[in-house]
Structures are given as structure tokens and as C-alpha cells.
């Protein structure tokens, strides 16, 4: 999990390690996807007991293979097991319309997170679409 997040967020996105690996990690439920052949980790994500989905990361070589969908589907199963009624994500501004198409609604105002302008977007758990999702820090 740590290696995937470090490669995607620290190396590619240039997010400082201190921000990437935060105090919420021990509280979160984590999803890890491994390559069928090599058993190497290729994708990860987390969901907090509050319903926040974040740190969805897929190694570059696997981004065109719908691996992010596997991560999201796993996180949504956790949300259902936790009996959450809603999930939310802090979307980069250029992805807001994308998430709207998948039943997420804008909540609140734009804010900065890890140097990136974000918009909180929420969706009732029963309406979440299992379409292809965007990487999310």
C-alpha cells in the first residue's frame, strides 16, 4: 500500500510524504489490489469510518485496466458493511463534472488540500455508480 501511494502521490504528484501519510491512516480501512501474475501491489485506496474515500492510487502501467474500479468497489463494500448511508470524496476541480455524472453532489465551497483546489462531493451509498473512477488523493 505504502509503495503504491508513494510512487503515485509523492513521486508523480509531488505531494510531501508528511501530507500523504497522515494521522488518518490508522483509522482507515484500506484496499490493496495486487497483480494476478506477480502478486505485486498495483493499486490502493482507503475509506474512513466517516465515509471519506481517499488515497485511491493506481500505478501508471495499470491505469487503463479499470483497476481503480476494483479499489472503489472494495471500498464501497466496506462502506456497506459499516452501514454508512453516504460516501464522499474531495475531488480535484477538473473532476467535479465527472463525479456529478456518477451521482455525487457538490457540498460546501472549494478548499485547498495538499496544494490542490478541491471540492467535497457526496453521494448516498445506494446511488454510487460503479463506473470508472478518477485517481483521488
**CATH superfamily name?**
Gcn5-related N-acetyltransferase (GNAT)
Helix content: 25-40%
The total tally of domains equals 1
Residues in β-strands, percent? 25-35%
Q: Roughly what is the average pLDDT, rounded to an integer?
A: 90
Main beta sheet, described? 3 strands, antiparallel
Query: Which spans of ≥5 residues are poorly predicted at pLDDT below 50?
Result: none
CATH architecture: 3-Layer(aba) Sandwich
Topology pattern, helix = H, strand = E: HHEEEHEHEE
- Topology, number of strands: 6
**Head-to-tail CA distance between termini:** 14 Å
**Strand order, largest beta sheet:** 1-2-3
CATH topology type? Aminopeptidase
At the first level of CATH, the class is Alpha Beta
Q: Which structural class do you get from the secondary structure elements?
A: alpha+beta
Outline: globular
Number of helical stretches of at least 4 residues: 4
**For the CA atoms, what is the radius of gyration?**
14 Å
- Oligomeric state of the chains present here: single chain
Protein name: GNAT family N-acetyltransferase
InterPro entries: Acyl_CoA_acyltransferase, GNAT_dom
GO molecular function: acyltransferase activity, transferring groups other than amino-acyl groups
Domain N-acetyltransferase: 1-126
Amino acid at each position: 500500500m505504502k509503495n503504491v501511494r508513494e510512487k503515485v502521490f509523492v513521486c508523480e504528484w509531488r505531494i510531501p510524504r508528511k501530507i500523504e501519510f497522515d494521522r488518518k491512516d490508522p483509522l482507515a480501512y484500506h484496499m490493496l489490489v495486487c497483480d494476478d501474475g506477480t502478486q505485486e501491489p498495483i493499486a490502493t485506496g482507503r475509506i474512513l469510518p466517516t465515509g471519506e474515500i481517499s488515497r485511491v492510487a493506481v500505478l501508471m502501467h495499470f491505469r487503463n485496466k479499470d483497476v481503480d474500479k476494483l479499489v472503489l468497489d472494495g471500498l464501497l463494500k466496506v462502506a456497506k458493511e459499516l452501514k454508512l448511508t453516504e460516501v464522499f470524496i474531495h475531488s480535484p476541480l477538473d473532476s467535479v463534472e465527472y463525479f456529478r455524472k456518477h451521482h455525487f453532489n457538490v457540498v460546501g465551497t472549494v478548499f485547498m488540500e495538499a496544494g490542490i483546489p478541491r471540492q467535497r462531493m457526496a453521494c448516498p451509498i445506494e446511488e454510487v455508480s460503479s463506473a470508472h473512477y478518477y485517481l483521488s488523493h
